[in-house]
Amino acid sequence: MVLASIFESGVSIQFYIVLSTILFAIGAIGVLIRRNMIILLMCIELMLNAVNLLLVAFSTYFGKADGQIFVFFIMVVAAAEATVGLSILVMAYRNIRTTDVSIFNKQKG
User: Which in 4, 52, 83, 106 has the greatest CB count within 10 A?
Assistant: First the structure.
């Protein structure tokens, strides 16, 4: 395993926890602040990848493959989310000519 050799070389689990927390926080802040649909999709992907990193790090640290199996399921969900999200984005851009998500609040009524 690749990560098993990383843990043996002296990188601790705390490094992966901190890195994953920082990546997840950047993604969450991006979702809350940005209004562009493309940026929102990228931030959601960043949050999913932060969780994937943490799952792989913990599964390697504890020597079990459960976390790595969950990563494959998360990657499938992320691919489906990207496909559906991009198709919605293309259709919205064709109709509205913008990728700003605040325009959808105005179209409710």
Answer: 52
CATH architecture, domain 2-98: Orthogonal Bundle (1.10)
pLDDT tens digits for range 62-107: 989 888 899 999 899 888 988 888 888 888 888 878 777 777 666 6
Angle at 49 between CA 48 and CA 55, to 5 degrees: 95
Return left, alpha or beta for 63; rule: phi > 0 is left, psi -120 to 50 is alpha, else beta: left
Helix (H, G, I), strand (E, B) or coil at 36: strand
- Six token digits for residue 45: 């992907």
Q: Which residues contact 108 (CB under 8 A, 6 or more apart)?
A: none
How far apart are alpha carbons 99 and 103 in whole angstroms?
9
- Domain positions in the chain: 2-98
Q: Are 4 and 60 within 8 A, CB to CB?
A: yes
